[in-house]
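Holo prediction. Input below; ligand is NAI.
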Amino acid sequence: MKAPIRVAITGAAGQIGYNLLFRIANGDMLGREQPIILQLLDIPPAQQALRGVAMELEDCAFPMLQQVITTDDARVAFRDAEVVLMVGAKPRGKGMERKDLLEANGAIFSEQGRILDEVAARHVKVLVVGNPANTNALIAMKNAPGLDPRNFSAMMRLDHNRAITQVALKLFQPIQDIKKMVIWGNHSGTQYPDLSHAEVRGRKVIDILRQNGWEEWSEKEFIPTVQKRGAAVIEARGLSSAASAANAAIGHVHDWLLHSHHNDWVTMSVPSDGSYGIPEGVLYGFPVTCRNGNYQIVKDLPISELGRKHMMDSYNELLGERELVKHLLR
Ligand code: NAI
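Structure of the complex:
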């Protein structure tokens, strides 16, 4: 039997947590042959609820779940963790400005970054889900100088999945045939869902759209629908996306640690390395291929003038966020 992997999850008593834990314990993220230990973190008032979730996990008798640890101490949760999903974050309260939200979450992610640096496995892979995810991930990364920056990422996979489905619905094609989608930039309203590289069974999506006289669909419908999907779900459900966010987190970590599909890529927000003219210093959504815990940014995709504008708008927003939290970046 393989050695167990310690998976730490913050905000584990929240709604995404509830949709995430059982699927991870079932092997959806790391495979059905991989024993795991879940190390669940939440704040003190959520401990009772967290214990209830742990009881339910026990009651599932998942064969690969070796242990469940619940705690309000990040040192306990992150100790020797090889995978960390940072979901816990402060939600935007009434009358709270964006700056206040960045500040409140900055405090959480700088402290948790420092603790990761102290106690997590040196090869730990970190996915930040809690919003504002890209900048929270930057803060955690900068506060963990002993860890490889390439081991920090933020979640754009939900946006990626949303975009694929919109194309599949528009063209009446199966989901699994839509390949090479990209969401550039920030996980926010400025993100750039880009279907100019997308293909359906080898044919360019833009050619099919053009053939049908739907040239304007991308700018007028597709991009705004994907950008505003989170708000539309809140409007309809009264709560933010949880099951779909958990599903995206599982897909992100699965592909990163194991592999992305042949002849396709996924979107991950990772530290910019100058690719596509996006300067270093922010976490930015790029198309990547993954294998065995490594990712490579897909290079040299042609970018239109309008596409470049969208990409820079999102980059500039990230720069603005960075400016607001610069005192937290070591
Ligand atoms: P939730 O409010 O149901 O749960 C959040 C949990 O985090 C709560 O149990 C809370 O007690 C906990 N928490 C707060 N501060 C903490 C801290 N310092 N340490 C540990 N735990 C802490 O929220 P939900 O729906 O589970 O969403 C979590 C985050 O994910 C939010 O920031 C949300 O905006 C974000 N999100 C990100 C998406 C993405 O695509 N990147 C998609 C959907 C949500």
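The two ends are 41 Å apart (CA to CA). That is the main takeaway for now.
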